[in-house]
Amino acid sequence: MAAVLQAKGLCKTYIVNKRQNNVLKNIDLSIEEGEMVAVMGPSGSGKSTLLYCLSGMDRVTAGKVDFCGKEITQLNEKELASLRLDEMGFIFQQMYMMKNLSVLDNIILPAVKSKKNTESRKQTEERGRALMRKLGIDDIGNNDINEVSGGQLQRACICRSMINSPKMIFADEPTGALNRASSDEVMDELTKLNSEGTTIMCVTHDPKVAAKCSRVLYIVDGGIIGEKQMGKFSTTGENLRNRERELNNWLMEQGW
Ligand SMILES: Nc1ncnc2c1ncn2[C@@H]1O[C@H](COP(=O)(O)OP(=O)(O)OP(=O)(O)O)[C@@H](O)[C@H]1O
């Protein structure tokens, strides 16, 4: 399997009030095509910062990041923005939907903005609707974003992250704002996308979410101190409880 994402010697330092905070310390990491990787660790350990640096949303202080063979740490802002738009999908806990647009218009916005997209508006809308059907929210396309539930909105975010058929989806606490049932539904959709070939990296505090991933990284104080290969989760015949139990035992060994 080819690596989609590779980081070498990745460091990130923030300077706040003249004080240096070395948040990521010399991280080496490789993510293969088709993996679904969870990033776990204590609060403030650098999980979100890692996600932002790997996806080019934030600049690294030292080291390099390759995405599909392109060294993103060498790209300028414009090149980075179009790479993110065309090849990456993003799902956040806060969702970041545009309040003045309908759910469908929010979903298709990355396609409308992409210079690579040669479709008519109607074709793009049709694709948006098809994604909504797949995620079971085809009845809320014309709603305002404040007229839908949190679970529906998060599924809309998944549609939006998929609209440009990205190579990889970066998710930061995608289920953090959801109740258990909605969280399970969103994870089912993400694992389905992953089984269809999309590589996913997901920051989470929830072992139930991580148990559905194929690999779990554990970060403490800006360094990856452990990783666990879980194998692909299959909804058919696999006992999720066993995976959760195994993962919880491992997390305790890491100091969780
Ligand atoms: N934009 C920023 N400017 C300055 N410091 C930042 C910035 N973003 C994060 N930090 C600091 O970097 C450290 C790591 O933050 P980060 O959000 O990556 O941790 P996390 O592991 O995702 O935490 P949590 O689980 O609480 O979301 C923290 O000390 C935080 O205060």
Automatic annotation (TrEMBL):
It holds the Pfam family ABC_tran. Residues 5-246 form the ABC transporter domain. Belongs to the ABC transporter superfamily. InterPro entries: AAA+_ATPase, ABC_transporter-like_ATP-bd, ABC_transporter-like_CS, MacB-like_ATP-bd, P-loop_NTPase. The keyword Nucleotide-binding applies. One of its GO terms (cellular component) is membrane protein complex. Keywords: ATP-binding, Nucleotide-binding, Transport. It comes from the Bacteria. SMART domains: AAA. Signal peptide: none annotated. The keyword Electron transport does not apply. This is ABC transporter ATP-binding protein. One of its GO terms (molecular function) is ATP binding.
